[in-house]
Amino acid sequence: MIATEENPINFPVKLSSNLTQFYYIFKKKKEGFKDSMEKNAEILDEKSDENRRINELIITARSHPCQQEKNQVIVFIFFLVL
What is the DSSP letter of 22? Predict the structure, then answer.
């Protein structure tokens, strides 16, 4: 069989079309996998930023003077009950 533009490799047409289809399917899946990995990395970055902000807010709330006074009152009432 002669290599042509439609059949650049000297395989029978059916085999070469199957290989071409396999190649393009593999290529699309590989690109899709890369895209999904990039999207997952972006999501993880966003979530880690959110977690960092939440942790900062928790630390700020715990160190706030009103919270410390509230804790002292709770401890005082606890000892009064005992």
Answer: H
Structure tokens at 55: 């942790």
Asked if 7 and 16 touch (Cβ cutoff 8 Å), the reply is yes
What gap in Å lies between CA 57 and CA 60, rounded to an integer?
A: 5
**Using an 8 Å Cβ cutoff, are 68 and 60 in contact?**
no
Res 1: pLDDT: 46
Cβ(10)–Cβ(3) below 8 Å: yes
Residue whose entry in the numeric block shows the structure tokens 């930023």: 49
pTM summary value: 0.37
What is the CB neighbour count within 10 angstroms for residue 70? 11
